């Protein structure tokens, strides 16, 4: 019996010593790279970075007139014919304007002389308003400050309002009263006859189908350039081309009979004084 007990003890000890060791944990599987085909599919699906958009290039510059009256408004004082036409070549296309002196004699005489001396060459359409509704496009601040300073206070006497500011009519802008008209004009995009009672006397009209071209004049800046009229007067087209490069310009404006804009050496004039404020800056009333 003692031998049997001893044998059982030995067997139990042997079993205890033969326990299997605790298995070591297997390392986590490392993700395998995608197959070539899968990688190609993923690459193809990834969006391609957009190429940087090039900054818009300003239009022009275009040659300026060197007629001596450009810096001496008193030399541009001829009486206009009873009727005449002027052709405008612009960066948006060409169109023609027809004028009738009886509509507004003072304004028509001024427009006739401005066209004849080449004043509108390289002049920007700096204000084009089409929203919230079609309104008008404005031009007439000369791109050369040396020219502009001689004209911005060359104001005209008032004219009786005989016509109406309907689509295609061309009218002088003003700074609040009819005796502040000088060189700025606008073309009506729509029926703005509400301006008639404010003293805005139409002088000419766009000859159809010229309004198709006028409609193409860039209007993306809206009122923004017009808010800087003082700076435009002092810095001219340099400022406009830097800050508002997409504006359209008048390349040339000539009487349709081919006369006008005779070349002559331009005077140097006096340089604008630093900080000087422009006077007589016409600004058409808002559409509100």
List keywords for this structure.
single chain, alpha+beta, Cyclophilin, nine-stranded antiparallel β-sheet, 7 helices, 9 strands, globular, disordered N terminus, signal, EC 5.2.1.8
How would you explain this protein's 3D organization?
The protein is of the alpha+beta class and 288 residues long. The chain has a domain at 68-255: Cyclophilin-like (Cyclophilin), CATH 2.40.100. Helix content is 22%, strand content 16%. It contains seven helices and nine strands, in the order ααββαβββαβββαααβ. The chain has a nine-stranded antiparallel beta sheet with strand order 3-9-1-2-8-6-7-5-4. A hairpin with a 6-residue loop joins strand 4 and strand 5 (136-139). The radius of gyration is 38 Å and the shape is globular.
Mind sketching the topology for me?
Layout: H1 2-17, H2 36-45, E1 83-90, E2 93-100, H3 105-117, E3 123-124, E4 127-129, E5 136-139, H4 145-151, E6 169-172, E7 185-188, E8 202-206, H5 211-214, H6 229-235, H7 237-243, E9 249-255
Antiparallel strand pairs: 1-2, 1-9, 2-8, 3-9, 4-5, 5-7, 6-7, 6-8
GO molecular function: peptidyl-prolyl cis-trans isomerase activity
Keywords: Isomerase, Rotamase, Signal
Signal peptide: 1-16
